[in-house]
Batch of 2 targets.
Target 1
Amino acid sequence: MGVARIGGSVRSGEAVLSGLSLCVNGSVYAIAADPATPLVYVLRNELGMTGTKFGCGLEQCGACAVLVDGASVLSCNVPAGQLAGRDIVTIEADGDSLLDAVGAAFVAAGAAQCGYCIPGMVIAVAGLLRADPRPGEEAIRAALQPHLCRCGTHARVLRAVHALSSDGGARP
Amino acid sequence: MTTESLARYRAVDDWLALTPDGRVTVRTGKVDIGQRVTTALALIAAEELDVDYGIIDIDGVDTAVSLDEEHTSASNSVERSGQSIRLAAATARRHLLARAASALGVDPATLDVSDGIVRSATTNRSVTYWELMDGCGFGIEVDTAIAPKPAARYRQIGGTVVARDLAALVRGAAPFLHDMILTGMLHARLVRPPHHRARLAALDPAVEGRLEGGSLVRDGSFLAVVHSDEYTAVRLAARVATAAQWADNGGLDTRDIWQRLVTAPRISLPVREGDAVEEPVPPLDPPPDAAVTTLHLRLERPYVMHASIAPSAAMALFEDGALTIWTHSQGVHQIRQTLAEALGMDVAKLRLVQKRGAGCYGHNGADDAALDAAIVARALPGRPVMLKWSRGDEHAWEPYGPAMVIYVRASLDAEGRVIDWSHETFSDTHRTRPRPGHDASGPRRMLATHLVENPVAPFVPEPFLLAPLAGVHRNATPYYGFLRKRVVKHLVPGMALRTSTLRSLGAYANVMAIETMMDELARAAGIDALDFRLRHLDDARAHDVLRAAAERGHWGRAGTGEGAGRGRGLAFARYNGLKAYAAVVVDLEVDDAALVHLRRVTVAADAGQVVDRDGLALQIEGAAIQAASWTLCEQVTWDAGGVTSRDWESYPILRFDNAPAIEVVLIDRPDQPYLGPSECALGPTAAAIANAIRDATGLRLVRLPFTPDAIRAAALQ
Ligand code: FES
Ligand code: FES
């Protein structure tokens, strides 16, 4: 195969700050990325928080969910610049008792196969429980509706959330 | 029982190492893609060695060091790798005990092991495995005749363990290939043609000045943009796409696929005892004289996607004439040869390292992404290139599970016995995995090889005969003891869309056709569907799964029936005719808007000896959900201009609003061979859904998927 390379040289990643700062997992970060960059890229590439996954970039699959001011938000289309001053929590958040409880419930239920979709679901469940510590079946399914899992882990995820909901031990 | 892998890798050291940190490393050519094979393999090694499961490490797969055990597929991982590891570990244990006996100066029969500590009952002295080995290898061959530990003495296998990496996965701390970062790494995105027949006609040169410091890699109609910033690469790909003009070359074939399948030129072969044979197809004789009822069924399946949640990706680095590719491919050894051929490189200069990917369920875009990344990396020597497909790339360019048409004709005698059965399956190939072969047969199965300046010739599939690896006729032979069976496979190459291996291959549709026909026959005979199946099966294990599913799934109890909108369905299959058994009962409701609501799925399965109980159950749950999704929601659509299923809205899959409760009943067969579990539930779940819809509505649906539109259309007929 003859491969031709066309066009200019590749820019090296010099860090020129954009003036944007973000509060993620309790710390404030000065951001180099253009504020129009969707949050998921900033989290993954600039802050190295790769627990937030990219699945579609279309707000259709849920892999990229993070908590913004406590509510689950899909991060693949929202410009990072719009989240200045907001409280962003990712799956990596240390010492977050609610995320810890949800994560432990997922482990207890064996709720992951390949696991690509799971961090987003943990976030969604944390967002749900924060608003309603004892959600009913309908509320649980509604909160998980934006989330796809191709491995078919749904029944395990539901089991994990029911365990949390009934023992009420997931209060923040 | 020995294995093919052991014939190739005879030494204990090929499989096991005791590492100085007091742990055990297990080597395998199998990759974990969410099916928890590494959990099962670790359990087997731990059990046989009498060490704790928690101290087992499983080596990653890397062509520079790992075993070549072919693809991780067809549910054969635990059968092959597991049996090899078990015999290697048993040999290692015996060797260690012999050494311990001489070190301690006692009779080996007085020794006992737990947690890798060998104790002598007579002297109270002990020594650990690691002290005995002292950092050295075993230096012995695996004894393939050794008697492994009897199942009755198992302490870990069959119990419940926490899957490897589960806690890290749940908190996003288990790195995927997609999360890799290498110093100086560049991000690449593809600009694909509108469809596989289109070729690049022109590219507006002005776009080269608008690359924001990035670059363009072009080889014929293969086009990629590269930038150090990932999101910039994403934006640039969209920009370059608007600057590209494509020659359509007639567009995609939009004729009715199911009509094409039964009319286009094909290769037809009879199937006997599961294998296709190179003989003339026997004619379809009229039903026998004793037939009192003869039924016909034509089932149609559309193209279906693997639809991985993560778009395919690969990292590649070309340096000093050598290429390293990090990939989530299922078969790094196989694809290595193909990539070397496709790239015109010496295979010795190619190293593939397997990294964690999202579930792929067969041959999806992983291998093609590896080649894409390699092409780009070669144009940018010295810089690691992370190439990721977009969601649209994944949906439009993965090789789909083929569309299929199946005809079944079956006859009953006056006693309600099936005395004649004919099954004909029409399908394009299920076997496009790149594997080494003559005449560039590997590269021909790839994607980019057809887009580059010097393309390879088209891939022309050949029929595969032997049952265990067959695609089109997998599970086409009913497991039931019918008096007369006629089974024919029709390989119809060159249909509209590119196809390959999707979980269970032809079995999903073949089982569905068989099991929906069984349902109709039972009705025609006036015999309960469970009873009807049992009467035609003389395998006790088949009876056991059917009875277990029926019992736990409340088969035969009231609450369902025609017209009530609520239905219950039953189905059964033995995967591939020789692997795991599964029987499924489905409960569902069909509402006034013709929407199917799954309520409950009960699966009883016999996959031989149970190793990782929870993992096995989870695999089966996942298969049931995936089959439900294919059956109720999924169909690839296209027009002349290309595939129109390009995202999760144009190609919906099952979501939480329709996730059923699932119960899995595992029938453990200690001391029986492991039978791969991952595919066994797919066909039976689909057929049980169809049969439950029949029960709920009186409608026999035969064109997948069973969307509200399809149900309304059937009701109008
Ligand atoms: S990646 Fe954001 S919803 Fe799919
Ligand atoms: S666990 Fe694999 S996609 Fe959900």
Note: Residues A 112-118, 149-151, 153; B 34, 309, 358-359 surround FE2/S2 (inorganic) cluster (ligand 2) (CB under 6 Å).
Target 2
Amino acid sequence: MSTLLEVSGVSVTFDGFRAINNLSFRIGTAEMRAIIGPNGAGKTTFMDIVTGKTKPDEGRILWGEKSLSLRGMSEARIAREGVGRKFQKPTVFEDQTVHENLVMALRNKRGPFAVLFYKPTAKDLARVEVLAAEIGLEDALWRKSGELSHGQKQWLEIGMLLAQEPRLLLVDEPAAGMTPAEREHTTNILVEAAKTRAVVVVEHDMEFVRRLNCKVTVLHEGAVLAEGRLDHVTANQDVIDVYLGR
Amino acid sequence: MKNSFLMRNPSTLIFLTALAAFTIVVTLLSEAFGLGLISTSFVKTLGKTLCLGLVAVAMDLVWGYAGILSLGHFAFFGLGGYMIGMWLMYERTRDIVISSMADAPIPPTTDEITDAIGHQIFGVVGSSEFPLIWAFADSLTLQLVLVVVVPGALAFVFGWLAFRSRVAGVYLSILTQAMTLALSFYLFQNDSGLRGNNGLSGLQNLPGLEAVPQEVVSIWFLWASALALGLGYLLAAWIVSGKFGSVIRGIRDDEARVRFLGYSVEGYKLALFTLTACIAGIAGALYYPQAGIINPAEIAPIASIYLAVWVAIGGRGRLYGAVVGAGFVSLVSSWFTGGQAPDIPLGFYTIKWVDWWLIVLGLSFVLVTLFAPKGIAGLFDLVSDRKWPNRHGADLGPDAGALREREASE
Ligand SMILES: Nc1ncnc2c1ncn2[C@@H]1O[C@H](COP(=O)(O)OP(=O)(O)O)[C@@H](O)[C@H]1O
Ligand SMILES: [Mg+2]
């Protein structure tokens, strides 16, 4: 399988504190990966670096078949290249309807003029319907997303992520605040998505990670501590010491 | 298609109907075309108020919808006024000069005429040379183009520098104030080429139309202002109704999130900032011929702050709120400061509204911001019973998460 994202030797320092320390990471074009690690391990910061929010001090971030460097690209440009992100805390546009949120996320031209003259095509509208059904919000399309429950907002954000049709999905703690049934549904959506694209999931909940049934990367103090199948890494003594044993 | 747009946006339809009705009523009550119940100077005040409504719409677009608190849009308004003022002043002075030279024994040469015009216009600042910026002053078409282009270009350059460096929030507001201040200082100078603190005057006289009385001209400008406001409103309503509106409201509420969706936030801000500067320029170009004079004091930083106050009091994020705020506050304001409001003798002290009005206005602003953030337009909600959720994503945490926010807080 060809490589979609290759991060190598990346470090970032906040006021002298090394949040990411010589981190290397690679993911293929259609692959699911879970990232686990204790609080403060640098999982969110890793996503910030890939999406361009945080500029790394050193290292390479190469993207796609042409090995484009993501370093130095703006957040918006990286997103247009096909990196989609779901935040730890659900961030949807509360003052706008579910429909508006999804239409904004749909993969279409992003420039001001194209957007000004944009008219939703029948295809776009159908896509919104399909997505809404997938995330269980088909009856809430015309409600303001601020009225949704926490779990529904999480899903709306997942729906927006899928609407973007990214090649790489970065998903930060998707199951937080979900009921067990909702978690299972989320797992299914992510597993389905990983058939055609790369998906990186940060999650604390081991049960959730187990159900993803994929390779796991353990982060600790900004570096990779272990990598492999879940059973394999949970048997690793270092991992037990820093993470599981506590 | 236009019909369906208006049907989908009833508030726009209502607004345009009300504007048309207002214009007709004023016309029917005017001295020129009707019963003569409204004085010409009041017609001009109303016409000017419509222009203020238009610049308030621009302010609402940029602040109420996109969250960019620009405290510089009155500079663009003033620049629009200067651009049209240059043509008005040049043409009128030329007419005067030509008629006064008409009975000279030798017909004057073009150069002599130009010199005489220059002398007339720039005599007050001790010069008679035409500065370069007056190069197009003899062409109405070009000056009309400049009404849009000059504010637009200034906004574009300023916005490009500011947004590119991701200046936002209060820092951007301060920067826009600095721009306004710098522009007014520049214009105050005698060698700015725009007659320093004298400004441009006599703008109420339309060249070539001296025979038309002011009561008729005032109505023409009222119509033009109403048309401009109507079209500006329609444009703004169209912009905010579609996906562009979604994106800019998204920028207002969570700029970073919009970036991660792939939209270039800076590009949108720049486009909107520039567009609204152009609208402000047009509003100014219609305002100052009705005011008759423009000088650098009009561009003072405080003017742009007033603009923000009008929009805040009227109600941000809905276009009619901006118009209502601009109209209401500016009319009340001119009533108080114009000496019409009766002083209140308290025995030991007399409240003179001319002095106290600013304090009342400032206090209303604070009170509205604190207790009625929806402004005057919030009153319309009582009628339409419009509700909007005011839950800004309070994180409920995992346990309460499966509940709706309302259920959870109960
Ligand atoms: N912008 C920042 N400024 C300073 N320190 C930060 C910043 N972002 C993250 N950190 C620090 O970097 C470390 C890693 O944080 P984070 O990536 O959020 O951890 P995780 O998501 O794995 O829990 C933490 O110690 C955090 O305090
Ligand atoms: Mg985190």
Note: The interface with chain A takes residues 239, 242-244, 246-247, 249-250, 253-254, 256-257, 259-265, 267-268, 271, 388-393, 395-398, 400-405 of chain B (CB under 8 Å).
